[in-house]
Each structure stands twice: as structure tokens, then as C-alpha cells.
Amino acid sequence: MDLDRAFAALADPTRRHIVTVLRSAPQDVDTLARPLPISRPAVSKHLAVLAAAGLVEVEKSGRRRLYRLHPEGFAEVRRWLDQVARTWDVALERFRRHVEGDGEG
User: Fold this and answer.
1) Residue 82: other Cβ atoms inside 10 A
2) Rounded to two decimals, what is the model's pTM?
3) What is the 3-state secondary structure (H, E, C) of the chain?
4) Where in this chain does the record put each HTH arsR-type domain (predicted)?
5) What are the pLDDT digits (tens) for 3-37?
6) Under a CB-based contact definition with an 8 Å cutoff, are residues 66 and 59 in contact?
7) How many angstroms separate the first and last alpha carbons of the chain?
């Protein structure tokens, strides 16, 4: 998975909304489009972007296509975010020790 593609996909508020809805259960395009102020084809385009980024997968169920989150795609995003968070944790801990005089800064 390409992190740039994943973050670009998640930069759009409509796609983040779709991801939030899909956290609870797989949905078809009609169900996803119903509460949104955009057309069903526009929602399909958003889903295609999320799928291309590896964040959503499609399952055919009869004539319907169900969209669900792709856990592996989010795992890679999460790993990267955890690395960034650890960097900040170390930096903030060093700053705390420096300010409090608890050791080397």
C-alpha cells in the first residue's frame, strides 16, 4: 500500500465520513449515499478512491456490491502514525526531563 495514496484518500471529508460509516458494518452504495448531499455516482467515485488506496474492499453479494474497510490498509497507516507518535513521545520526555532537571536533556 502507498501511504501517500492512503492519506490523500483520507484527506477528503466525504471519504472520511464513508470510512466512519463502514466501521460499523459493510454497506452498499445506496445506503452510503442516502444521508450524503452528493449523488450515488459521486459516492461510487469516492469508494473507488478508497479502494485504490487499499482502505476499502468490495464484495459482490448477488447483484449488490458491499463495501467494507480493509484492515490491512489501515494497519499500515497505523504503523506509520505509531512511529511518528513514538518520535514525539521521546522528544517530549526529553523536554520534560530537561525542564524538570531530571537528567540529561
Assistant:
1) 10
2) 0.79
3) CCHHHHHHHHCCHHHHHHHHHHCCCCECHHHHHCCCCCCHHHHHHHHHHHHHCCCEEEEEECCEEEEEECHHHHHHHHHHHHHHHHHHHHHHHHHHHHHHCCCCC
4) 1-92
5) 999 999 999 999 999 999 999 999 999 999 999 99
6) yes
7) 38
